[in-house]
Amino acid sequence: MLLGKPNVYGSIFRFEGQASVFHPKAAGHAIAACIPNRLRRDWFRRARKAECSAFCRRHRRDSGHRGDQLILGEGEPLVGRLLLFDALKMKFRELKLRRNPECPLCGDNPTIKQLIDYDQFCGVAPQPAATEVSDWEITPLQLKQLLDSGERVTIIDVREPHEWQIANLESYGSRLIPLGQFSGRINELNPEEEIVVHCKMGGRSAKAYDAMKKAGFTKIKNLKGGILAWADQVDRAMQKY
User: Fold this and answer.
1) Which domains does the chain have, with CATH numbers?
2) Which helix (DSSP H) or strand (DSSP E) does residue 43 occupy?
3) Contact predicate 198/137, CB 8 Å
4) DSSP label at 79?
5) Checking phi first, is residue 152 left (phi over 0); if not, alpha (psi -120 to 50) or beta?
């Protein structure tokens, strides 16, 4: 919504579901950019905040909704309408939604102009990172401490170029050598240097680590958790995917 793009919304909790499209710039529809606060309170009054928050925290990155209808421009999208489904009674209901001119996000004078910490908003404490680290691994915090202390560390990113464009450690001198090219370019690396390899979560870089061990490299570490762990533990502003 901050980008002015339509939000295809859907949610399931136990035996209840709902769907809508929030699009402040939709032409030919009653502009429905947000659910009024009163409706939110009425609809979710039976769910406890902590329980809902935990459910959302577990599933918000694993579920998605299709926006094909908007892309194709076919049919009648749910702009200005909230579709409710009761799986126990096997019934559908539809509510009309109106734009709230006082909405802090999409009203006439919006005050919300950036994202917030989702876990903090929901009152859910983030899960602590695992403390067990193998001899061949280094945590993001340990790597950051080395870099801040002035240690010379060669960082090798074995992801694909399109992943590099989303998030990278270029400011720390990181080099991109995709895993598919790694065996043919391993001679570009100096075995006398301290080397840290990483990928998105640590799996691909583990294969690069094994290849370097077989080639005789000894001063190497694999970044535990990859760049996603770096984003969680070091740079919370880094974009994740």
Assistant:
1) 7-122 (no CATH), 137-233 (3.40.250.10)
2) helix 37-43
3) no
4) B
5) beta
Q: Per-block average pLDDT, block size 10, for the chain (241 residues)?
A: 78 88 62 49 47 47 55 80 91 87 81 75 59 84 96 96 96 96 96 97 96 96 96 95 92
- DSSP state letter for 120: H
Query: Cβ contacts of residue 195 below 8 Å, gap of 6+?
Result: 153, 154, 155, 156, 189, 212, 217, 219, 220, 221
Label residues 45-74 b or e (16+ Cβ within 10 Å = b). eeeeeeeebeeebeeeeeeeeeeeebeeee
- Token pair recorded at residue 207: 């294969």
Tokens of 156: 């090798």
CA 199 to chain centre: 16
**Number of C-beta neighbours around residue 121 at 10 A:** 9
Q: Find the helix or strand (DSSP H, E) in which 195 lies.
A: strand 195-198
Beta partners for 94?
83
What does pTM read for this prediction?
0.48
Cα dihedral sign, 216-175-232-9: negative
Write down the pLDDT at residue 1: 63
